[in-house]
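Write out the 3D structure for:
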Amino acid sequence: MGREFVFVAVRQTWGEDRVFFLDEDGTLKSLPTGWTDAAAADVFVAMAAGRSPFRAEDLLGLAELIGRARPGNGSDGV
């Protein structure tokens, strides 16, 4: 946190937006854009202003995932 690097570009690779930069040794590296301050601020996160650590959309997705993983939910033929 708080480190600065030489920005090179933002490109979509490996199915996601990535930030390319030069590290301390001048080697080209990349990170998912969401891990950097180059990403646009998530509207929900900005509006929640620290009051909610989770987005409703993410919680609903998690509930669906848990529901599918439970034994006896019909997906295993039982």
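The chain is about 25% helix and 25% strand.
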